[in-house]
């Protein structure tokens, strides 16, 4: 009997960086290897640099986080095989197409053309999304990915349980709580990646007429979870909204990772840990004919976690906080009305393509006011 072999992968060769004169965000780089340093001064320096990056930029680079370049390149090669080399068959694309408006989850395959980008312009994005419950379930996976699901799970387990855990320890310190607090009391632990999801995403080169009609490929947004861990790649398209109100590109950092915070942390920290707005624009002309492949883990909170501010945080108690919740018709905001992480997560997915309808300004910041369970929730926009 012949021995079964894995579907062969084409090696991942990163596209060339742009030579265009674009303005990059001046993001800080955190050397995560120093998190475990025996030198207390090095550990403290990492925390202070991380704290500044979160407060001033909301985005940061991670380096030396314990994964080799070969391990990173292998994940890009797997995603390339599925999405660029058409390893996912037409039948599988139809069978596994996401039904997020039914489920409140981005499970499975997303075809191009779901989102309106501009008048007459639809998105050029294909992606495949994994959840804990679907990672090891063959019927939820295309055949080309089943061969590599063990490596995908191991990779994500490391992102979630090692890298993300260290980030949450630093964030707990920022709230002046025990280092294990956010990991123990906020982070979901249901399966390899909890209630979060892992995404392989590919932007097709947009037609020339699309580039003329819209500078944007994905509109500005905040992620709704806890943290986002995105592998850095060379196509210049990701932009972050800087503190001065200007959009700037996020530069490629070989072997690095880009980290930003999600809305859950902004809610429970009362605004001290902000979710930063970001978007995907058209890339420079010298990269216009290239596929843009991105890979990221979006971590999530325990389903039952209340999004109320953590008033047990000494930081919040001392400096105050901004509550994102306002009374409804009965004039009361009590604990039973504040949404849980699961309720908010599902609501955000179900209306992910709905534009803001009730914009209010609080202390100079714009919010989208959502009516939810008898109260108003202020969502940063």
From TrEMBL:
Belongs to the iron/ascorbate-dependent oxidoreductase family. One of its GO terms (molecular function) is metal ion binding. InterPro entries: DIOX_N, IPNS-like_FE2OG_OXY, IPNS-like_sf. Residues 211-298 form the Isopenicillin N synthase-like Fe(2+) 2OG dioxygenase domain. Residues 29-133 form the Non-haem dioxygenase N-terminal domain. Keywords: Iron, Metal-binding, Oxidoreductase. Coiled coil: none annotated. This is Fe2OG dioxygenase domain-containing protein. PANTHER family: FE2OG DIOXYGENASE DOMAIN-CONTAINING PROTEIN, OXIDOREDUCTASE, 2OG-FE II OXYGENASE FAMILY PROTEIN.
């Amino acid at each position: 009997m012949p021995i079964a072999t894995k579907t062969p992968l084409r090696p991942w060769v990163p596209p060339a960086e742009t030579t265009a004169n674009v303005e990059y965000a001046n993001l800080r780089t955190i050397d995560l290897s120093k998190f475990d340093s025996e030198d207390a001064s090095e550990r403290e320096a990492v925390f202070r640099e991380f704290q500044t990056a979160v407060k001033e930029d909301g985005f940061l680079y991670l380096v030396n986080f314990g994964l080799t370049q070969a391990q990173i390149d292998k994940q890009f090669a797997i995603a390339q095989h599925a999405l660029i080399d058409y390893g996912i068959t037409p039948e599988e694309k139809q069978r596994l197409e996401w039904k997020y408006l039914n489920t409140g989850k981005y499970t499975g395959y997303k075809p191009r053309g779901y989102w309106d980008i501009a008048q007459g312009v639809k998105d050029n994005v294909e992606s495949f999304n994994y959840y804990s419950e679907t990672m090891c379930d063959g019927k939820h996976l295309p055949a080309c990915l089943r061969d590599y699901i063990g490596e995908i799970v191991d990779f994500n387990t490391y992102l979630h349980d090692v890298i993300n855990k260290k980030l949450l320890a630093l964030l707990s310190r920022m709230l002046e709580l025990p280092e294990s607090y956010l990991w123990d009391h906020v982070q979901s632990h249901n399966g390899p990646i909890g209630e979060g999801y892992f995404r392989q995403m590919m932007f097709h080169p947009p037609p020339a007429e699309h580039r003329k009609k819209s500078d944007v490929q994905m509109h500005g947004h905040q992620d709704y979870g806890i943290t986002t861990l995105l592998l850095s790649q060379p196509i210049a398209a990701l932009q972050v909204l800087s503190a001065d109100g200007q959009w700037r590109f996020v530069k490629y950092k070989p072997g690095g990772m880009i980290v930003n915070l999600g809305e859950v942390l902004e809610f429970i920290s009362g605004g001290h840990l902000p979710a930063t707005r970001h978007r995907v624009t058209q890339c420079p002309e010298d990269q216009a004919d290239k596929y843009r492949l991105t890979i990221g883990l979006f971590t999530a909170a325990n389903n039952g976690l209340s999004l109320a501010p953590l008033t047990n945080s000494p930081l919040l108690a001392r400096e105050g906080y901004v509550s994102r919740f306002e009374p409804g018709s009965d004039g009361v905001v009590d604990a039973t009305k504040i949404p849980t992480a699961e309720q908010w997560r599902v609501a955000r997915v179900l209306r992910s393509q709905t534009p803001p309808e009730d914009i209010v300004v609080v202390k100079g910041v714009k919010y989208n006011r959502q009516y939810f369970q008898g109260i108003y929730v202020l969502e940063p926009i």
